[in-house]
Amino acid sequence: MGTALLWGGVLGCSAEPAMAVTLDWDAGVDAGPAPATCASGSVWTEATGGTGATMAPGYACRSCHLRQAPSVAYFFMGTVFPSLHEADGCDARLEAPSKVKVEILDADGQVRLTLVPNASGNFLSTTLQPSFPLPYRARLVGPDGATRVMATPQSSGDCNSCHTGQGTQGAPERIALP
């Protein structure tokens, strides 16, 4: 067993950045998709969790809002999870969400926006369009200061549309704490 640092590019998906991810690997063996889990054991449902900033962790936030609530389809929306393979709807229950930051970087690498997730892991900007020219990259800063940096510049901020429990369009699974 070894360790590899992946800087995955998002092919054909401008919806979400690729984050640097450290994964264990066994040369020549493809274990297949990892099973989705829910570390917190708590799954959001509309009946139990209602609507608002803690709703539907892991689902493609902006895509849904554009269809059902365009006035709150904020440009940057997503979920930070404790691990890579969390199931849709899993309440992340981050222990120290106020110490986690999602930094949005402009094309020059300057921090243009800092978003803080809530306890369910959800983060969102407060504007429908970015206030700076695209493309952007993101940096995830964990509660201990460890970071993950997006490798591929993006032009859309619907983070969970590519960062699914298995990852789509070349994205490395969920946005997970470093």
What does this entry look like structurally?
The chain is mainly beta. The protein is built from 2 helices and 9 strands. It has helices spanning about 45-50, 60-70, and strands at about 1-5, 20-25, 75-80, 100-105, 110-115, 120-125, 135-140, 145-150, 175. Strands 5-4-7-8 form a 4-stranded antiparallel β-sheet, with no helix packed on it. Strands 6-3-9 form a 3-stranded mixed β-sheet, with no helix packed on it. Strands 1-2 form a two-stranded antiparallel ribbon. The two termini are about 20 Å apart.
- Strand arrangement, largest sheet? 5-4-7-8
Shape, principal axes of CA atoms: globular
The arrangement of helices and strands along the chain is EEHHEEEEEEE
Q: Would you tell me the overall average pLDDT?
A: 82
Major beta sheet summary: 4 strands, antiparallel
Give the N-to-C terminal Cα separation. Answer: 20 Å
Helix content bin: under 10%
